[in-house]
Amino acid sequence: MSGFAKAEWGVPHVDFKRTDDGFIVSFKRPPASVQKYAKERFEAQNYNRTLGPAIVGAVSLGLGHIMKKATTIIVTNDAVIIDNKKMSRDDFGGFCVYATWQLNSDIISVLGYSFGRQRFQFGGGWPEHKAIEIASALNALMS
What we know:
Strand content: 35-45%
Shape: globular
Strand order of the largest sheet: 1-2-3-4-5
Number of helices: 3
Radius of gyration: 18 Å
Distance between the termini: 28 Å
């Protein structure tokens, strides 16, 4: 059958690799709090033309330093490992959107996961639709 679009069956917006007993996902995103701060400072430059470019430059340098470390998720038959935190698949509840922030017209969402009865955030901020797609794809691969 030709003429059909090719479907994405991995995890969109990240580096995805299947392994013999699971998969590995990695990506680099700045923490959502840093993104929020950078956006607020960038918008502040409209009010202060002198300090605005200096603030944006300093924030950009900080983002470059923070983004050197990638988030890594490794899923095997018996474990889920997120940034070196190893959890049993039996206790791992799944992936979600942990929080969403509205910044004027932009929405930043933070990925999260549940482990036991607790929820944790990870992986920095994403546009809302991308965070939903990533969490959904990760959960689909977990089943």
